[in-house]
Design brief:
By secondary structure, the chain is mostly helical. It is 75% helix and 5% strand.
Length: 260
C-alpha cells in the first residue's frame, strides 16, 4: 500500500511537470499558484490596456502628421499668393495682367478652403477643436491642440478673401498673406509640439508594456531547465515505483509457496 501511494503521488507530479513543460506555464491550474494567478491576471489586463493606449497615441501621432502634411502645402500656396500680391504692384502691369494674377490668387485661396474641410478617419483635421488623447491604461489624457483653417479664423479667411486686381488691394493682400503665413508658422509649431509630446508618451507606454510583460513572465512562465530536471526526476521515481510495486505484489506469492 505504501508503494502504491508513493507511485500515485509521483505519477501526479510527473503529469503536472509534463503539463508545465508542454504549456510553457508554471500555472496550469489555479491550484498550482492561486496568488500568482490572481496577480498575473491583473498584470495581463494592464498590459492589454497599455497596448490599447499605445494604439491611441500612435493614431494621434498619425493624425498630427497628416495635419502637418496638409499645412506644408498650405504654406506653399500662401507663399505663392504673397508673391502674386507683390507682382501685382508692378507699375508696368496692366489691368488685364492683374486679372490673370488675381485668377491664380483666387484659385490658391479655393485650395486652402478645400484643405480646411479635410478629415482623418471622419475626424476633422482643421476645425480648431482640441482632442483628448488617452495616454495610459488608467484613463490619463493629453490635450492635443487643434488647428483652425476654417472661415472662423479671420487671419486665414481675410487673406483668402483678398484680391490683387488693383495696386491698393494688392498691398492689402501682401499684409494679409504675411499675417496668414505667421499664423501658419505658429500652427505648425503647435503640431510639432503635439507630435513630440505624443512621441514621449508612446515611448513611455512601450517601456511600461515591456516591464509588465517581464513581471508576468516571472510569475507564470516555466523555467524549462529546472522543470526538465524535475520531469526527469519524477519519471525515474515513477519507473522505480512501478518496479517496486510489482515486487511488493509478488511477496505474498513467495510466502504462500513456502507454506505449501
Amino acid at each position: 500500500m505504501n508503494a502504491a501511494t508513493q507511485l500515485q503521488q509521483n505519477s501526479a507530479n510527473l503529469s503536472a511537470s509534463l503539463a508545465r513543460l508542454s504549456s510553457g506555464s508554471k500555472i496550469v491550474t489555479p491550484a498550482d499558484d492561486s496568488a500568482g494567478l490572481a496577480v498575473s491576471m491583473k498584470l495581463n489586463a494592464q498590459i492589454a490596456r497599455t497596448g490599447a493606449a499605445s494604439n491611441n497615441v500612435s493614431n494621434a501621432i498619425s493624425y498630427n502628421q497628416t495635419q502637418d502634411g496638409y499645412l506644408q502645402q498650405v504654406n506653399t500656396a500662401l507663399s505663392r499668393m504673397s508673391e502674386l500680391a507683390v507682382s501685382a504692384q508692378d507699375v508696368t502691369k496692366t489691368t488685364a495682367d492683374r486679372a490673370l494674377y488675381n485668377q491664380e490668387y483666387s484659385t490658391l485661396g479655393t485650395y486652402i478652403n478645400n484643405v480646411s474641410t479635410q478629415s482623418f478617419n471622419g475626424v476633422s483635421l482643421f476645425n480648431g477643436n482640441a482632442l483628448s488623447v488617452t495616454t495610459d491604461g488608467d484613463g490619463g489624457t493629453f490635450n492635443n491642440l487643434g488647428v483652425d483653417l476654417t472661415s472662423s479664423n479671420t487671419t486665414y479667411a481675410t487673406a483668402i478673401a483678398d484680391n490683387v486686381l488693383s495696386f491698393t488691394s494688392a498691398q492689402k493682400a501682401v499684409t494679409d498673406t504675411s499675417s496668414a503665413i505667421s499664423q501658419l508658422a505658429s500652427d505648425r509649431a503647435k503640431i510639432g509640439a503635439n507630435e513630440e509630446t505624443l512621441g514621449y508618451y508612446n515611448n513611455q507606454l512601450s517601456t511600461l508594456s515591456n516591464n509588465l510583460s517581464a513581471a508576468t513572465s516571472q510569475i507564470t512562465d516555466v523555467d524549462v531547465a529546472t522543470e526538465s530536471t524535475n520531469y526527469a526526476k519524477q519519471n525515474i521515481l515513477v519507473q522505480s515505483g512501478t518496479a517496486m510495486l510489482a515486487q511488493a505484489n509478488s511477496m505474498p506469492q513467495s510466502v504462500l509457496r513456502l507454506l505449501s
